[in-house]
Amino acid sequence: GQNIDQPTEMTATEGAIVQINCTYQTSGFNGLFWYQQHAGEAPTFLSYNVLDGLEEKGRFSSFLSRSKGYSYLLLKELQMKDSASYLCASKDSNYQLIWGAGTKLIIKP
Amino acid sequence: EADIYQTPRYLVIGTGKKITLECSQTMGHDKMYWYQQDPGMELHLIHYSYGVNSTEKGDLSSESTVSRIRTEHFPLTLESARPSHTSQYLCASSEFQDSSEAFFGQGTRLTVV
To answer: A43 vs B106: CB contact, 8 Å cut-off?
Structure first.
């Protein structure tokens, strides 16, 4: 079956760094997406990885290892507004997104 | 700023009623999607479309229908609402390229009483 695993909840301190992990098992692989979703709002796109390695975009970076079926999202210089759920999604052989349940990130002052 | 709109934002309706959730996008995207999301849970694909007159079923499609008569419009219809349909419904669109990200509407929160 197809499966995306990510931690349910994480807590971090304002100004710190946090890494959110995601492992995926999908039939075929055509890219890994990270989205941010604030409570009661729609998901918004953060990053896309299709090749192994690190993609950096400002305070956010995303890493992919296809051989390990593993990705992480790295958030630096955490701000209170970063409190949200972070969704990992893998695109399968049919180019459909398989979504994880999301990691709720709580930022404390 | 993404230009994809869903109406209504909130809807409370009685069991057995027929309802249509509206979704429109002004970005000219070929692909459109409907997802269902319960609080703290993953998104489940209900229906999707690759373009005009194209509709495909997702995992949770059996109790709903969609149409794609125009590129910008992708309505979702529940023929007979049930309490188990209570959920958030998210519409999304993307360009045809596989690397394209999906842009989401603000969602419709549906309650069936």
So the answer is: no
